[in-house]
Amino acid sequence: MELTITQPDDWHLHLRDGSLLEAVLPHSAKHFGRAIVMPNLKPPVTTTSAAVTYRESILKAIPTDSNFTPLMTLYLTDLTTPDEIKHAKKSGLVYGVKLYPAGATTNSQDGVTDLFGNCFSVLKEMAEQNLPLLVHGEVTNSEVDIFDREKVFIETILEPLVQRLPQLKVVMEHITTADAVKFVESCKEGYVAATVTPQHLLLNRNALFQGGLQPHNYCLPVLKREIHRQAIVSAVTSGSKRFFLGTDSAPHDRRNKECSCGCAGIYNSPVALSLYAKVFEEAGALDKLEAFTSFNGADFYGLPRNKSKIKLRKASWKVPYYLSFPFGDIVPMFAGETLEWEALPC
């Protein structure tokens, strides 16, 4: 079996910087036409000028045979100004502003401490400029169970935000729960959407503990119960335009995953399209795969769909146990396992 589809885009991607950027970028550039690049570097990308500089670093690392285009984002802080939002929009290079609640995930220590109190004027300007808010949707209150933090964030932050600023475009990134599916489906189409990762479509929280602690299955938001995984699969394979591909591929050196305080993040860029095809095939929805991977995200962001094509072929291949680079190793998602779909350039 072979499918030819419009070249997909990745609407949520971590490329890091320096030698790590150079190592991982070719895996995304091999299959994806564009990607929304996350700004949580050290220091974070909080200004348009910093985004332009970061973009130049990415462009230098793109393989010469690739048409990959990075779409930049800003990191929202308590000190972001409406003028910076105007500058970002005017640049033509910034496509969203990322909300990290302070302390929620990797390099989020500079994130927002009070969205409505400190950032409401910025959110209003974003709505005016048609610049989407990209949301890591978890509360950081230590008294809230980690498996409930997405649900509580929806109830306390997202629902009030959509009510107060219905014209603001919002992407709820890497959704993990039936609650998130229900929320996105309840909102006005074209204004609230969600990205979905391979890990949250294929794994539940058992994958963190089967056969011992599994650090390479640890990500944030953390994997949830099987009922939530099933709800997400049903949503993305239904044909709804509200959901689109966002890998949240997040590389870390193996030493920073397999340690006493391992980093959150799953590196899935080399296997993502194979895994999405697996999900849609098992759901009997391969006819809806192209819209999820290649149409819905572009339409939401108001960008043209890609004209180039790629092929997905039903062919078994084994995922490497690790990928070696001068700085160390990166362990990819499903390392050592055999996958049944292979993505090829067309």
Automatic annotation (TrEMBL):
Q: Report the catalytic activity.
A: (S)-dihydroorotate + H2O = N-carbamoyl-L-aspartate + H(+)
Task: Provide an example Pfam family for this protein.
Answer: Amidohydro_1
Q: Is tRNA processing one of the keywords?
A: no
Entry's InterPro entries? Amidohydro-rel, DHOdimr, Dihydroorotase_CS, Metal_Hydrolase
EC assignment: 3.5.2.3
**Might you name a Gene Ontology BP term for this protein?**
'de novo' pyrimidine nucleobase biosynthetic process
Pathway noted in the entry = Pyrimidine metabolism; UMP biosynthesis via de novo pathway; (S)-dihydroorotate from bicarbonate: step 3/3
Which molecular function terms from Gene Ontology are attached?
Answer: dihydroorotase activity; metal ion binding
Q: Which UniProt keywords apply?
A: Hydrolase, Metal-binding, Pyrimidine biosynthesis, Zinc
Which Gene3D superfamilies does this entry report, sorted A to Z? Metal-dependent hydrolases
Which stretches make up the Amidohydrolase-related domain?
Answer: 10-321
Q: Does the keyword Zinc apply?
A: yes
| Family the UniProt entry places it in | Belongs to the metallo-dependent hydrolases superfamily. DHOase family. Class II DHOase subfamily.
- HAMAP family, per database record: PyrC_classII
Protein name (Swiss-Prot/TrEMBL): Dihydroorotase, mitochondrial
